[in-house]
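Let's study a protein:

___
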Amino acid sequence: MNKLPLHAQDADDEAFAQFVENSPRLFVLTGAGCSTASGLGDYRDAQGQWKRRQPITGQVFIGNELARKRYWARSSVGWPSFSQAKPGTAHHALRSLQESGNVTQLVTQNVDQLHQKAGHENVIDLHGVLATVSCIECSHTTSRDLFQSQLVDNNPWLSSLTAAHAPDGDADLELSNLDEMHVPPCGQCGNIVKPDVVFYGENVPRDTVRHAMQALEQADALLVIGSSLMVYSGFRFCLDAQKRGQAIVIVNNGMTRADDMATLKIQGDCGARMQLLVSSLIQ
């Protein structure tokens, strides 16, 4: 596990450890706060407000060719760094909790697969993954790395662009003239290729939600790590747990939409809190 300096254990850490000891079957929901230490950005500040403009919606991506070109131009800059990100302390700590039997199901709102890279098994990627792209018509799938090569081969000027990295493999890049940009179509049917993620404005697949909800129903409690829960796709798990009377514990560096529902709310860095938790449990 990556080592961070452990802050002095406080009452919240002690309550957190006690909670985990008393809840042997945890359903864990993670958000962007787990991946910020890996160099990946988040969308919201500590008050839950947007830190940057909202990401593209699925409707705009499919229906607006210019917006689609802008997305892929920005993504071409962000993808190399995004794809090379390494798991952080929070990811490794959660893997340790799975190994100890404390985590029965992990659901993530992130699309970076860093939990899997840390060795976590049976992860539900609620919003999909950026590592693959698929045709919206025939569903032919290819790797994002291959699509990146095709994208740059068709538009060599993309490799010269630089920009600050934004969440989800995006980049803070403004482009005015994209008329000559060529986005590779599906190699099977020639239709539009889309990242295998749930864009804003799109719905999480029903089977994915049903699978996750079944796992939550069988758990002792809900543990939320690094999510503001401002998006309903994550907040719904808190609503479901509250309805059933399950305990809800939230670890986040800032406010969340479910603070008033939490049995225990722990403020602070996710990685440091999780590392201290694991260290206290294995002593």
Summary: The chain has two domains: 1-40+87-127+204-283, 52-84+132-197. The longest helix spans residues 65-83. Residues 1-5 have pLDDT under 50 and may be disordered.
